[in-house]
Each structure stands twice: as C-alpha cells, then as structure tokens.
Amino acid sequence: MLTYQTWETEEKPSFPHDNETKGALDVLTWAFRQYKDDIVYACSFGVEGIVLIDLISQVKPDAEIVFLDTGLHFRETYKTIEKVKEKYPSLRIVMKKPSLSLEEQAQQLGDELWKHNPNKCCELRKVIPLREALTGITAWISGLRREQSPTRSHVEYINKDDKFKSIKICPLIHWTWKDVWNYVYKRRLPYNVLHDRGYPSIGCEPCTSPALDPNDLRSGRWVGHGKTECGLHIS
Ligand code: SF4
C-alpha cells in the first residue's frame, strides 16, 4: 500500500483523464480500494466539494467526510451540509471543531484574531484540527483543481503531503469551473446558495467576500491580507 513512508519506493499508479469524470472516478475507486477505511475526505462544502461527495458516494457510500467547523462559517454553509446529509444519509459527516472556543481564543489571543493575525487563526481553527482528524489515517482527499490558482497548478492526483505526513489524493485536478457546474446541474445536486451571489470560493464568513476579480476565483478570500491559502495545502 502506498503510504507516506513508502512514497519513495512504491510505484505510483497513473490514470487516464480523457473520460467522463476526467479521471476522478478512477482515482477514487483506486483510493478506496487501496485505503478502505483509512482515508477521509476533508470537505469545505463548496461546489467542488459537492461534486466530490457525489462521486465518492458512488464508490464508497459510507465514506468519512470531515468538515473543519471553525465556528465562523456562513449560515448558508451549515444549511448546505444539512441538505447533503439528507441526500446522502449513509455518508459519515464529522464536524471537527478546534480545541479553543471562539471565546477562549479571544481571551488568549485577542478579539477577532482573523483581523490581526489570520495565519494564526487558520492554524488554530483549521490546520491543527485537520492534523488531529488525520491522526492514524494514511490518506486524505482534497478537492483542489489546477485551474484554481497558480499555487495549485502543479497538483497531481496522488501527492506526498509533508505537512500532514500522509498521502493527499486530488481527483479533480483536471476539472474546470465549467466542468464542475455542468456536473452539478446535470445531477441536480444541492449547493451553497452563496455561489449564486458572487462567491465562487467560500470559507469563513469574516474572511470571505464576493470575488473581486471574476477571473480569479479566490480573489474574495482574505482580502487585504496578502493571503490566498488557509495553510492546509502549504508545506
Ligand atoms: Fe480564522 Fe479566517 Fe482562517 Fe477562518 S479563514 S480560520 S476566520 S483566519
């Protein structure tokens, strides 16, 4: 089994991406066969997340889905999660919370940490909780697409993840924004209504605005902070 520890010696599988799901179903089938219950999907419940959940449910209907519940998400995001739970009742959706409540965080590090130190806030409320969720787990799935940003343009289907000492599987790397929406409409999937209000990328409410640049899907994230990633995908 390909693991973080065997990355240098194991042969990596390759997948064709000229089929209907651009390789995504093949990658997921391989990943769940390889890792069984030793793999989780860390989902933000944006539109790529909805596509991946629908694909995962075709391969492993009782897969574990982890949502990093910072306590600062939009009401619309929590409603989306409820709709997903109704549509896919056998999936195991885990709401992973940080160890510090918002009140404790404010007492220890100041009010509204995201305004004066968003990196620290993301570390406490996203990175550390994901590390905890991945403890004892060999692989995780992410909805990264190469088109999303220059920092994601070299992502592969199967990646060695030094940050979490695990294998990171990214089935949607070849999907375009149009592919994602075509799939959602064709399959009549539920999605976060904020996407219809100018938010292509949705994170925590204090750090997410409608996109400033329609050609840059992540241009509404951490506006004014010179930050484009929460830290989950940066070594
Ligand atoms: Fe904190 Fe903003 Fe990061 Fe959410 S996105 S964890 S509010 S800094």
Question: How would you describe this structure to a colleague?
Answer:
By secondary structure, the chain is of the alpha/beta class. The chain has one domain: HUPs (Rossmann fold). The protein contains seven helices and six strands; from the N terminus they run H-E-H-E-H-E-H-H-H-E-E-E-H. A six-stranded mixed beta sheet has the order 3-2-1-4-6-5, sandwiched between helices. The longest helix has 16 residues. The radius of gyration is 17 Å and the shape is globular. The mean pLDDT is 95. Iron/sulfur cluster binds next to helix 6.
Provide key terms for this protein.
alpha/beta; single chain; cytoplasm; globular; 6 strands; 6-stranded mixed β-sheet; 4 iron, 4 sulfur cluster binding; 235 residues; binds iron/sulfur cluster; Rossmann fold
Could you write a compact summary of the structure shown?
With 235 residues, the chain is α/β, with parallel strands linked by helices. Helices cover 32% and strands 11% of the residues.
Mean pLDDT across residues: 95
CATH homology-level superfamily: HUPs
> For this structure, what is the CATH class?
Alpha Beta
Strand order of the largest sheet: 3-2-1-4-6-5
As a percent range, the share of strand residues is 5-15%
Number of helices: 7
Blueprint (SSEs and pairs):
Blueprint: H1 24-35, E1 39-42, H2 47-59, E2 64-68, H3 75-87, E3 92-96, H4 102-109, H5 113-116, H6 118-133, E4 139-141, E5 158-161, E6 166-169, H7 177-186
Helix pairs in contact: 1-2, 2-7
The structure holds iron/sulfur cluster.
